[in-house]
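Supplementary Methods, section 5.1.

A reviewer requested that the exact input to the structure prediction be made available. We therefore reproduce it here, unchanged from the version used in the analyses.
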Amino acid sequence: MRDFAYHHPTSLDDAQRLATEPGAALLAGGQTLLREMKRGRLSPTSLVDVAGLVPRDIAIDDGAVFVGAGATHADVAASSVVQRRLPALAALVGHIGDPAVRNRGTLGGAVAANEPAGDYPAACLALDATIHTTARRIAAADFFLGAGDGRTVLEAGEIVTAATFPVPSHAGYVKFLNPAARYAMVGVFAARTADGGARVSVTGARARGAFRWHDAETALDAAFAPESLRDVRLPAEGLVEDLFADAAYRAHLTEVLARRALALATGPSPGALVLSHGSCR
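The structure derived from this sequence is encoded token-by-token as follows.
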């Protein structure tokens, strides 16, 4: 790493002021930022630590699940509120990284980083979450820009403080792990909103980050069941190609995982399912 200044402000106002200085970066759990600094991909001149400044509580807020930006993945996975109201989200978060990552990584850091294979962005899009910041409230559909476009609409000094997740009638998430790094080669989150609309999001398949699969949503609006996706195809154009899978494979994988996510969402135990090589056909 290159040298940097470290700031531990005592208020959000101070944190916002420091974060607007040239070369500054916000530090939450550090699971993305510190990794990228060690790899030389990011070289901020100062880090502004917001740990302890943003809420960490998890509660019901006007019928939606409220998660403070300071809540760690382990906090969310263990929350009785999330387990009871949004078991798919609790299970998704419980499979992020490993225990060390889950005990340091936070909701705020995960949504602000918007990694191409991130699990939280997929959940936010499928559940129609609202991202709360120090300046405004932003619908998830408007918040994520893509990994190559500044990642999010956050402006300099703007800090994520929480997210609220409307409770769906059905939800399920399935991801297929990269065999080396164990991030999602593809992950699919399927949800049916309280008013009956279908939402399907995909992560890991595009370098630009998570996206909604509108053709699948249209098919599921007619009948929220795996059979509705039997003839729905995701075009391979624009999907990631790497050592582990070409674009056509990722397209097929997305279709398979979407049907499995639907089966999970409509089954007796909604939640999340993690698959590894050799377990997906």
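The CA atoms of residues 173 and 189 lie 4 Å apart. These observations are discussed further in the main text.
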